[in-house]
Amino acid sequence: MSCNNLRLGVNIDHVATVRNARGGAYPDPLRAAKLAEEAGADGITAHLREDRRHISDADIDGLMDVLTVPLNFEMAATEEMQKIALRHKPHAVCIVPEKREERTTEGGLEVAREENRLAHYIAPLRDAGCRVSIFIAADRAQIEAAHRIGAEVIELHTGAYCDAHAEGRLDERDRELESLREMSALARSLGLEVHAGHGLTYDTVKPIAAFPEVMELNIGHFLIGEAIFRGMTPAIEEMRRLMDEARA
Q: Residue 163: is it exposed, middle or buried by C-beta count within 10 angstroms (0-12/13-18/19+)?
């Protein structure tokens, strides 16, 4: 891990997306995970969706066998996913919202309205030794609810900030960035560890990486896309360089 304590988690979901387009064995997400490790990733993230559109159960089995860095297991708050997580006991589980019709995760989890259910849902995961993270918008009510239910970590959804940047809506981008900054500080003041991710690119990562409260960034789709042109190792090394530069 970098000496500045900002970790990089590499999400390998979309290696599996490419594999599944042909229904074969290649490209192999496990190979991508090992390359990411060698390139300096501090952890690997994989989202086992209910519809298994990219990562498969066998991929999770394999990752648990081969990884030497922590696995961050993204999952919906369903009974099936809880059973899978309790069987594997990954280093971390990140509870995310999930809809079958969405292309990708569209927003943060609604914690405030489901506080009682989610508190009971995550308790066995914590008892099993998994660090529980909640993927949420930069919203005070959601952060405070995540704290009350016993989550140890929150991951702030950076998608709105990244979308505004990409579409040239600079005033909105700056407002989103300021909200992320304020809510990172709030979460840390409550004793929560702060992570961030979704949509981050070389162009958008540095302002988020500069937040002193943020301890981990999880980045996937952009890095897998960039790897087509640069290769996996150079793509990850460049992201690591930008993160370190921002943090310094």
A: middle
Residue from 37, 74, 98, 176 carrying the catalytic annotation: 74
Check the CA dihedral 29-32-34-40 and report its sign: negative
Query: By the 8 A CB rule, do 154 and 162 touch?
Result: no
74 is catalytic: yes
First vs last Cα of the chain: how many Å apart?
Answer: 14
Contact status, residue 226 vs residue 206, Cβ threshold 8 Å: no
120 flagged as catalytic: no
pLDDT digits (tens, 9 = 90+) for 153-190: 999 999 999 999 999 999 999 999 999 999 999 999 99
Closest CA to 92 of 42, 160, 136: 42
For the segment 82-97, what is each residue's pLDDT rounded down to a tens digit? Answer: 999 999 999 999 999 9
| Catalytic one of 157, 176, 198, 216 | 198
Instruction: Express each pLDDT in 190-238 by its tens digit.
Output: 999 999 999 999 999 999 999 999 999 999 999 999 999 999 999 999 9
Domain boundaries, the chain: 7-247
Is CATH 3.20.20.70 the right assignment for the domain spanning 7-247? yes
